[in-house]
């Protein structure tokens, strides 16, 4: 019990109303007669038990509670703490009391004791405990306990004032507490109640104000001092509200009182200003410039007017095939070591697919198809594409594929109808299907021939038909397009079987679109092969090693740069004014700004000097024109002479200082050479990492209309093709920036808006989205992702960079990428233009009269074709060096040693051999 007062010799030493915490309990063993003034204190519930912590007790209740401090009772919760052990919560089960034992002389032999049989709450063990091992745990009921209880019992409240607590599910289920929030405690109900109370408060204020006006006699028809009733208050309150707002919601501040100005005026809300745009923002939210607006340069498209297709007779429009052609070209060049193909340009691929026929063979066309077949089928004749495997027997699945099925005739997707000819629209008869079944090569047949590389005399077309039939049999996704292509490759005469010769003739008669589709179908299954996966894993391992080497060179470069900077500070301290001697010392690129070129810096310096000279000359002319010009010039001349003398004094240094200065310059030159070496190594490793990034084609970025920009030389290949390829002298691989139209799903609600969205956009930006796009892109708009355009001119590249607005998020990133790669892109564009000009010059020179002799005429025609079609200059030197022969020349040759290292190292270590063509000319 807390001691409240001490009574000594009839006087109180402390105020009985004070509460002193944590004091020694008071035991009143004798009856004490308290004065009458304090008897009322005993009955007040202001005492607290010191043992249990119970409060709100009278004096007698607190004293009795403290009397049994060392006595415990059954079912009471206690703390068992034996000597040297941890405290454990327990419950008293039984109590045994032992009385006091005295000796004959009256001394106490054994004091009164008690033994308790307790049960531990953790584990349920029971044991016998002494009194001194037990104690009560006093737990105060305070805010911390309440806060912890609430935290453990309810969910976090919602983020609005007055949100109710919601009990957790397990507690609500155990104690049957409803968890449904009452309607009056929900957010909308609370907000509505607040609005009603605020409205009632405003109404009361207005009515008080109107009553005050009535008391002053300022209301029409009401004498001063009149107490308005509820009807009058409602009437004048309505007039007050009506006069505060006109029909447009703007306050007018007058009342119907004979035209007199009312004592109250309307408070006009301040006009809301639109928040200013924070850049970078969404690209289409940037306000358009009405003056000096820069538009995107006009795009070019792959058409018959393209220089590479100028002398080619096209039977189909190449523009819809642009995306497929780019995909084929990029895959073949990125995985060129896997296909064992020399790199080639995009122009050569398009030209080769367009010109190949029986009279005009093209090595590039044949090598591509043979290389793709050899990747899909390995040396043992086994298919490497899992989706095309699992053929149980020779003809079982082919017969199921080609045989008529009456039950499934209604299912068009499972019914195969291959036309005998392009003009034959009717279904195949049983005889036709039997002929097709006999004509098409079986899976075991064509895969075995591909494994043995039986490609002599251009027989690979027959094997490509086997691959198409295999895809049609196994793939439901490509079945319809395969049926369409196989129908074009079937002979028209009924008695003519599908032979290698007839297949070659039919393949030569295919249009450009069909050839692209066949090659694309084969290329789509290449990524599923084991060879591609192994190639990508090798690239990843090589990239990891290259990255480690790059980090080591960067770590080596960092202290060198720091040391160079320290030496530069020493140089400035030794001779601060002798800056001319530093001209001979190269400054490392790591110290300078990487974004600026040396040429541009030199131009800026020259321009600055010229501007300074011009300003000085203009200043001299201005001073001479003044009345006091002569005196000013003399004064300035004296100042210059004094400054020159002062400079000469500072330049004079001792011989020791001069020796130190020269030594510092030598050390700086050495450090600069080391830094330059590190930078060259880092640049080589960066280029190796770029070429090993073969997983996907990385785009440069997107513009405001979600057009995608690609520069395919950015990763996965060398900028100008492989250095040891047959066409390495071209100096470019693609030489264009390709722009793909917006994806339909991405452009929805961003570029393509409905009427309501377009109206809101025009109101927000001041121009319609369609009109803005027409103004920005002109006539060369790309409607969807199937449309492609390109830029092949450095001037158009600069215009494109100027067109992009760096205030937009997407265009800021795209503009940065274009500026970073601008030099390399422009260089490859120039190389492409130079080659096109050379080809045009050669084609003009070929307009000479044909010779009379047959042999001479044939040789002249061959030379003219090779000059007219640049793709005929390509040959597969990689296959000749590594395999011993070309892919299309027959069986697999003895494989050469497996190349190691990056392409640059392979090119540097390759032994250049002089190889000749079959005609005797050097490749």
Automatic annotation (TrEMBL):
Residues 893-903 have a biased composition (Basic residues). Residues 637-647 have a biased composition (Basic and acidic residues). Pfam families: DDT, WSD. GO terms for biological process: subtelomeric heterochromatin formation. Residues 575-647, 885-923 are annotated as: Disordered. SMART domains: DDT. InterPro entries: DDT_dom (IPR018501), WHIM2_dom (IPR028941). Residues 319-382 form the DDT domain. One of its GO terms (cellular component) is nucleus. The keyword Membrane does not apply. Residues 592-605 have a biased composition (Acidic residues). It is found in: Nucleus. Keywords: Nucleus. PANTHER family: ISWI CHROMATIN-REMODELING COMPLEX SUBUNIT YPL216W-RELATED (PTHR32075). This is DDT domain-containing protein. It comes from Carpinus fangiana.
